[in-house]
Write a structure and sequence with these properties.
The protein contains ten helices and 22 strands. With 509 residues, the chain is of the alpha+beta class. Strands 1, 2, 19, 20, 21 and 22 form a six-stranded antiparallel beta sheet that branches. Strands 3, 4, 5, 6, 15 and 16 form a six-stranded mixed beta sheet that branches. Strands 10-9-14 form a three-stranded antiparallel beta sheet, with no helix packed on it. Strand 12 and strand 13 form a beta hairpin. Helix 3 crosses helix 4. It is globular, with a radius of gyration of 26 Å.
């Protein structure tokens, strides 16, 4: 008698989450990550359910994903519609066009101060492969920021002239007392910014053996540029160094090859108040206002009146910025380090402090207010460039899940780089189905230069939102720490691996 063999019960197909975990495990298993630590959290935005996680409460050096804490804090404390107001006051009386006293320009913490403004009331920002001028000394393809760096000063100078002042018999002073100057890893924070306190030095090759051409922006009496960059034959390496051997003198050395595109270098202004003062005096001259005091030189802060003593009747001009929402977009889209640090300083000001480090407390308050554990958010700057800073995947996803429900939520989410479309993610997975469906902040910390020529990725992370192919809205954070790489270019392999993880999330969840 024949018997009927029944098939064994079929194994159920792996869930979407299981497929994602399997793909992440495959990537983590590469030899490159033998010494590395991985952590991630993938969360359903609506329900808060954790769909997949690994080491989600473990601390990582996340780099620029820490900017999410600084920018969300500034938006929380000031509101997306806040505008920076930079006034000019007269200290003294005016007779026959002469001000017998001083003009005072009061710094408001306006990062762009007229720079980058587009006709549609938005701020311009760069999309990779174009790189923002603030990274000109670190990354290739840097370009000058859009716009005229002295436009706000020219506007204020015109206001002074319109107020009937044609001569200032006293001095011009910059009031930079909004907060105390503070040196973060990425540079000096100041309440006054002109050209974002950078000197742009655009180098173009000439003929072989002859000096290269250098265009300086902005041109002011604050700095003299000594150009010793030479032009070398096509194919030779381009190496350009910039230094300030003495105050006010920028020295440029090195070489640029024939056929090379213009190469941008920048120099950070050492004394923002003195720099702004000189530029303002020059703007006044262009507007037909003469000043008795010398154009260049230190800012005479001893002439300032008591802080907060300015009266409305003394106001002769004021520059009003675009809304803070535009600054949030600029900072997150291009990962602007000094811009994020400035947000931390402004948070301190809102708390009544002149100490920028007080802004770190405000960042922690933002995160814990949205449900993150205090012990999982440890910032030391606004940008994530201080390698003492730490956070966890859970803290990041908790912050990001909570933000859409706040008054500034739409502004924050819209400010994040869109994968494959703009900002620092414009050329990442731009031909993938996930392009346009993920809003992600990335961060990295790479160190090298020891005697053995070794390079270590201290941390590489991403955090943001993904709308999956199934229409599900997710919040995620992925971080890796301690990845030894052989060359600087090896870093991009780490980026590609994390991008594959995002693709898997988009496809399967």
């Amino acid at each position: 008698m024949a018997s009927l063999a029944l098939p064994a019960a079929a194994k159920p197909a792996p869930s979407g989450a299981a497929k994602v975990v399997r793909e992440i495990d495959r990537i983590e298993g590469k030899a490159l990550y033998r010494q590395s630590d991985w952590g991630y959290a993938i969360v359903d935005q609506r329900s808060g359910k954790v769909l997949a996680s690994q080491n989600a409460h473990k601390m990582f050096d996340p780099g620029s994903t820490m900017k999410t804490y600084a920018v969300s804090t500034a938006l929380r404390m000031y509101g997306p519609s806040y505008r920076f107001r930079t006034p000019v006051y007269q200290e003294g009386t005016v007779a026959d066009g002469t001000l017998s006293g001083n003009l005072v320009l009061v710094g408001s913490g306006d990062l762009t101060f007229g720079l980058r403004a587009l006709p549609n009331d938005t701020l311009a920002y760069e999309n990779l492969p174009a790189v923002d001028h603030s990274y000109a000394d670190e990354l290739p393809h840097a370009v000058e920021a859009f716009g005229k760096p002295l436009s706000a000063l020219d506007e204020l100078a015109a206001d002074v002239r319109a107020a009937g002042i044609t001569h200032v018999s006293g001095n011009v002073v910059v009031d930079d007392r909004l907060f105390a100057p503070y040196e973060f890893p990425d540079g000096l924070m100041s309440p006054i910014w002109v050209n974002e306190n950078l000197i742009d030095l655009l180098v173009k090759p000439g003929t072989v053996g002859r000096p290269a051409a250098v265009a300086v922006k902005p041109e002011t009496a604050s700095y003299v540029v000594d150009n010793e960059v030479t032009t070398v034959p096509r194919g030779k390496p381009t190496t350009i160094s910039v230094s300030e051997p003495s105050p006010g003198k920028i020295a440029m050395t090195g070489q640029i090859a024939v056929g090379e595109p213009p190469t941008l270098r920048v120099w950070e202004v050492a004394d923002p108040a003195a720099f702004a003062r000189t530029a303002f005096i020059e703007a006044l001259a262009r507007a037909g206002v003469t000043v008795t005091s010398p154009v260049a030189g230190p800012n005479p802060a001893v002439l300032l009146p008591a802080q907060g003593s300015y009266k409305p009747a003394q106001l002769v001009g004021q520059h009003v910025s675009l809304p803070l929402a535009q600054y949030a977009k600029l900072i997150l889209k291009i990962s602007y380090n000094r811009g994020a640090d400035l947000m931390a300083c402004l948070a301190a000001v809102k708390l009544g402090s002149r100490n920028c480090q007080r802004g770190m407390g405000a960042e922690v308050e933002t995160a814990t207010g949205l449900g993150a554990r205090r012990s999982e958010v440890i910032p030391f700057d606004g940008a994530g460039s201080d390698d003492r800073g730490r956070t966890t995947p859970t803290a990041l996803t908790t912050l990001l899940r909570g933000i859409p429900g706040t008054s500034y939520g739409k502004t924050f989410v819209a400010a994040l780089p869109i994968l494959g479309r703009d900002g620092t993610l414009a050329n990442v997975l731009n031909h993938s189905p996930v392009a346009g469906h993920a809003q992600i902040k990335t961060g990295n910390r790479v160190v090298g230069g020891n005697g053995a020529g070794q390079i270590n990725v201290l941390g590489n992370s991403l955090a943001g939102y993904v709308t999956t192919s199934h229409g599900r809205r997710l919040v995620l954070a992925i971080a890796v720490g301690n990845v030894p790489i052989k060359t600087p270019e090896g870093f991009f392999g780490v980026v590609d691996d994390q991008a594959e993880m995002i693709e898997s999330v988009y496809e399967h969840l």
